[in-house]
Specification:
By secondary structure, the chain is α+β, with helices and mostly antiparallel strands. The protein contains 7 helices and 8 strands. The N and C termini lie far apart (97 Å).
Length: 204
């Protein structure tokens, strides 16, 4: 009888359902944490290598320390962006000028690449599709008509220029404005999308 009782107890234990609410079960069912943005790789791709991605997501996580690690020491300054005073840092890289505007928390609000080293950007521009808005660019060039093509949901504004000289040349990428994806209205009001001060960049 003792052997029968033990055998029945063993069967009952083996057949009982597992406790899915146990801490171990709950722990293994949690989603994996979001992979953090590698800001230095992101800045290297956009600024140094001239890689044209379909979104600037993650640029708002980058700090001055990240930018310095990639671009070296820059010139510090202060100006207004969207009606608010902002610190900025500027770097010169060959013909390209890079300026980053910083938020109060020390993270990038806007990264401007003037004369980016992206080469032919026609395929990239076509891939982005229709912009959410266009207007006369903040970037000015003699003998060029330049418009800002705003892809706010991608965090990208591309200044595309058309030459007024003869013979005609293909439209070219004159400047890039990179920011965390947002709306057109927020880009204008908070990030100086139409600021005259920013428009005169890099003359000031």
């Amino acid at each position: 009888m003792m052997r029968i009782a033990l055998a029945l107890s063993f069967v009952a234990l083996a057949c009982s359902p597992r406790d899915e609410a146990s801490p171990k079960a709950a722990m293994t069912s949690r989603p994996a944490p979001t992979t953090p943005i590698d800001c230095r790789a992101l800045l290297t791709a956009w600024v140094v290598e001239g890689t044209l991605a379909d979104s600037a997501h993650g640029i708002g996580q980058c700090t001055a320390a990240d930018a310095t690690a990639v671009l070296g020491d820059g010139e510090a300054g202060h100006g207004r962006l969207g009606g608010t005073g902002r610190d900025w840092t500027r770097w010169q890289r060959g013909e390209a000028t890079v300026r980053a505007f910083w938020g109060a928390d020390g993270h990038a609000l806007l990264v401007v690449i003037d004369r980016p080293s992206a080469g032919d950007a026609s395929a990239w521009r076509a891939r982005l599709g229709e912009p959410e808005a266009t207007w006369p660019s903040r970037t000015k060039r003699m003998d060029w008509t330049i418009k800002d093509h705003v892809f706010a949901a991608r965090g990208i504004t591309a200044s595309i220029g058309e030459s007024l000289l003869e013979p005609p040349v293909a439209p070219s990428l004159q400047a890039l404005y990179l920011y965390e994806p947002t709306t057109v209205d927020a880009y204008v009001s908070d990030l100086g999308g139409k600021d005259e001060w920013t428009r005169k960049f890099p003359l000031r």
